[in-house]
Write a structure and sequence with these properties.
412 residues; disordered N terminus
């Protein structure tokens, strides 16, 4: 890509907008970066007016495929197989997506403005005008995974518990939160209090996405392919993307873009840890029985009771069916010794079998999760909670029981 020639920031008089706008000419193509507020009727009106002006022959928007699907198919979760979600280990991501969606829904109800209205306007107007539409943002799941891997391990729990806790607990969205949403999307505004003080968080959340969206433009709207491209992005991305477009870009943007999509594989130590724990526990049992039968059985009983009680009790927090609690109590001590299957998977499977979600559960899911009690009322979200609580209970039981066995064998 050749060097760009930056024109004035103020848009032409015949195309005035309420939000900031930046015009950049790269080769034979003009890119109009429109900085929008994700909670603003004016931004949606700006998008509609610009596309209807006929000045553009392509539109690019700050959405990824999954967010585009969620926007155009709000009941998409109902089309998924919940059992497969648990099998593939996606329950946590689905729960986080529901929590963010709940935040959006509460915001819409309080402000009267649906977050992402400007993106919806871009979708509708580009379709009506028969203009090519490009989705240039990185997948939200990839961004969350890169955030997870980029921050130090000791910060991960506080950041993600803060994310879910803040989204789930706030029944009223403050004026300050609404103002933050005018600069970035729900994900950015939720992480903002952490990102401001953490370069390791800011990089994957903002800097990498600025670069990623410019690389997508270099691929999908390369100079010369279109005459004039409207780029609809959150106002918080304007400065970074403009600076990126002003610099020469790689000849093969796809390679760098794919690198920004990659997530580091789990370390060999982390993958081996469950098997190591299993080996240590079984070795502990063997040592106990080699000393005397009574000690061996004592270790086995404590392992089963600690694992079973903590996992079963954890599912009670999610108001699981009594048979689910009983099944989790029995399964957790066994699944803790088998890294290929988790207690949460068993608990969720039993809960799904006993309390099959109805059509109305899926149709009301997005509304139900806007209230804390709705997570327990709706059978879909409650099953997610059963999975998560059983998993956490089993993990706690494994470590506590493991230390108990070590204490019995090697303690004073």
């Amino acid at each position: 890509m050749t060097d760009s020639q930056d024109s004035v920031i103020t848009p032409p008089q015949h195309a005035t907008t309420s939000g900031p706008r930046r015009e950049l000419v790269v080769g034979e193509t003009r890119y109009s970066l429109l900085g929008t507020a994700h909670v603003s009727a004016e931004s949606a009106a700006d998008v509609r007016a610009l596309i209807r002006s006929g000045d553009f022959d392509a539109v690019a928007i700050e959405l990824c495929e999954s967010r585009h699907h969620s926007l155009t198919h709000p009941d998409a979760l109902g089309e998924q197989d919940l059992f497969q979600i648990f099998r593939q280990g996606k329950a946590g991501m689905v729960a986080a997506s529901l929590a963010l969606g709940a935040f959006q829904q509460r915001l819409a109800e309080q402000s009267g403005i649906e977050p992402g209205a400007e993106m919806r306007a871009a979708l509708e107007e580009s379709r009506d005008a028969d203009l090519p539409l490009m989705l240039i943002d990185r997948d939200v799941g990839t961004t969350l995974k890169r955030i997870y891997h980029n921050v130090p391990w000791w910060q991960r729990f506080s950041i993600f518990s803060g994310l879910l806790g803040s989204v789930l607990s706030r029944q009223q969205v403050s004026a300050e939160e609404i103002e933050r949403l005018k600069e970035g999307d729900v994900l950015e505004s939720t992480f903002s209090e952490f990102a401001a003080e953490s370069a390791s968080l800011y990089t994957p959340l903002i800097t990498e996405r600025d670069r990623y969206m410019v690389l997508r433009l270099a691929e999908d709207a390369a100079p010369g392919r279109y005459r004039h491209v409207l780029v609809v992005i959150g106002a918080g991305h304007m400065k970074g993307m403009a600076e990126q477009l002003e610099q020469p870009l790689p000849e093969a943007p796809r390679l760098e873009r794919e690198a920004l999509e990659a997530t580091p594989p789990p370390s060999k130590v982390w993958k081996a840890l469950p098997w190591a724990i299993t080996a240590l526990v079984l070795t502990g049992f063997a040592i106990g029985f080699s000393r005397n039968t009574e000690l061996g059985w004592q270790l086995v009983v404590e392992w089963f009771l600690i694992n079973g009680v903590l996992s079963g009790a954890a599912t009670l927090i999610a108001l699981a069916h009594p048979l689910t609690v009983a099944a989790t109590f029995v399964a957790a001590p066994l699944t803790s010794l088998n890294p290929t299957i988790g207690a949460g998977f068993v608990a969720a499977g039993v809960e799904l079998w006993l309390r099959k979600p109805k059509v109305r559960d899926f149709s009301s899911l997005r509304h139900d999760v806007t209230e804390l009690k709705g997570w327990w009322r709706n059978r879909v979200s409650r099953t997610l909670l059963v999975f998560l609580t059983a998993t956490l209970g089993s993990a706690a039981g494994t470590w506590i029981a493991g230390f108990r066995i070590a204490g019995k064998l090697f303690g004073g």
